[in-house]
Amino acid sequence: MTQIVVPRRAIGAMEMKGFEEFDCTRGGFPPAQQAKFRDEMCQIAADQPEAMQRQLEHVLGERPAVLCAMAEIVVGEWDAREAQSK
User: Fold this and answer.
1) What is this structure's pTM?
2) Long-range own/partner contacts, residues 33-39 (CB < 8 A, 24 or more apart)
3) Is the pLDDT of residue 1 over 60?
4) pLDDT digit string (tens) for 59-80?
5) Gap between the Cα atoms of 19 and 13, Å rounded
6) Model confidence band, residue 21 (pLDDT cutoffs 50, 70, 90)
7) CB within 8 Å of 80: residues ≥ 6 apart
8) Which of 6, 37, 64, 65 is the most exposed place for a label (fewest CB within 10 A)?
9) DSSP string, 10-53
């Protein structure tokens, strides 16, 4: 099961797309992993070609840019400069 990070207000919409609610705090998806997910989705949205993004949308059920934006609401804004320095 792929875990994604979304704000509480988006849970209903994501459930309509087939996702299931998962409590990150109790379920072993700590803030550091949530931030890693955000970083990965934001990096993909910023750098990868459209074909790759469509492929990931097919696999994950949502566009990387949307997943990035929702994760930013939960764990804070992605810092592209910091990501480039890693």
Assistant:
1) 0.84
2) 34/5, 34/71, 34/74, 34/75, 35/75, 35/76, 37/3, 37/4, 37/5, 37/67, 37/71, 38/5, 38/68, 38/71, 38/72, 38/74, 38/75, 38/76, 38/78, 39/78, 39/83
3) no
4) 888 999 999 999 999 999 999 8
5) 9
6) confident
7) 42, 46
8) 65
9) GHHHHHHTT-----HHHHT--HHHHHHHHHHHHHHHHHS-HHHH
